[in-house]
Design goal:
This protein is mainly α and 541 residues long. Helices cover 71% and strands 5% of the residues. It has four domains: 2-250 and 384-502, no CATH class; 264-298, no CATH class; 308-380, no CATH class; 507-541, no CATH class. It contains 19 helices and six strands. Strand 5 and strand 6 (460-461) form a beta hairpin. The longest helix has 36 residues, at 214-249.
Amino acid sequence: MELDVVELSRLQFAMTAMFHFLFVPLTLGLSLIVAIMETVYVMTNRPIWRQMAKFWGMLFGINFVLGVATGITMEFQFGMNWSYYSHYVGDVFGAPLAMEGLMAFFLEATFVGLFFFGWDKLSKVQHMVVAWLVALGSNFSALWILIANGWMANPVGAEFNPDTMRMEMTSFFDVLFNEVAQSKFVHTVSAGYVTASVFVLGVSALYLLQRRHENLARRSIAVAASFGLASALSVVVLGDESGYSASQTQKMKLAAIEAMWQTEPAPAPFTLVGFPDQEARETHYAIHIPWAMGLIGTRSLDTVIPGINELVADNAQKIERGIIAYDALMTIRAERDAAPAEVRATFEQHSDDLGYAFLLMRYVDDPREATPEQIAQAAEDTVPGVAPLFWAFRIMVGLGFSFIAVMLYFFYRASFKGMNFPRWSLYGAVAIIPAPWIAAELGWFVAEYGRQPWTVDGVLPTALSVSHLSVTDLLITLTGFVIFYTVLFVIEVSLMVKYIRKGPTQDVEETRKWQERHEHRLRTHDGKGPFAPGAASTPAE
């Protein structure tokens, strides 16, 4: 029954989190793309760029609202479904979430209203500043969320207090500048920028295929291709940095992603494809790239990356040391201030492995009573599902390289071929619109599934983190979330499709003013230069 509660709680949080992340990447990327477009408008004073900023800004707004709604629901689950987790690590985990609300969400929520209702009430420069503040708030929000998430993968800046039975923060600086959090942040936001770029590219390609809004579409493709190429390249580079970070802090996850069962001599090869068999402890029909994994994971030719079997043996030793820490902890809890100093010293010596003793609670109430077989089984539990991680990672990476190729092609056509795009390429751009969402969801699957069986790596097992709920409670709420989120998703898609079909609306008054300024320049010019008759552009350009 308890395991059912754990699995249902995991399923519910996974569903809400991955649904929420349908909106986050597009929000992150569109906020910056809109700010860039409005900046070009302020610099050039051309109405077409204002039209572009307003159109893509409308789609950003639809996505932003639903992202906020699903994000709030997701955060409430920490108290509803994961109450012991919140109690155990709330002193640490709650700090970045509070900062996200104070520094990012309020900033974003305040200026998003000014963005939508301030077009005719603010000057061009003031409105441009508002657009950049909305983008800043969106990215700040992701920063604090990912600092919290990164701490779960690499719990630095905190230690366990045996008197309060909780993790307590010892250094906010260490939590803030956690290497896992920083690499996760830049990798995630870059993936969001790619998502928005592919979205803008695909919708603009659709307009060109329909021969509608061609001026807007061509310029939007130019912006999306430039921004998307830089972002796609950074995703690969920063993903490499995440791999290096994992080799230092999440060795089991890295070994599972690679299906590396045995420790290979340095530098380890990279398994390009294969069929991992977790029961047989081997990967069938594997194709290897020599040295590649060693270079990616260690930045060296002589550093060894441990395999799964070696890590399981190491974790069995950590469990045994964790039992020693658990025994000392129980003595401290029983005797309080009267606990002998040597007992506290013993606990301090082995406290880093206390979480591994908690893995035994799946099999025995008191870890001190665990048999060697139960210790071996608990050590085996530290291996996540290898095949799902292996393939999810490779599909994600394959999609990432495909985005580089797509963006490079459209950047070339936009920059050197007069923004002329073959129809086959436009159809392809429309077809790949869902691809970055697939890559992003796979990335989160690799990050979260690869951390199992931990909610906080090496500190708190997932099985101990859940609230005391019944299976019925979880089934009812899970069903309710599925229905509610499905309705939200239908609303999101319907609104996006409606406004994409409607297309941008021309700002008649702004175009008239631009035309008057343009004609005035033509009348007052001496007939030479870019404003001479015959050299002029149309108002839409």
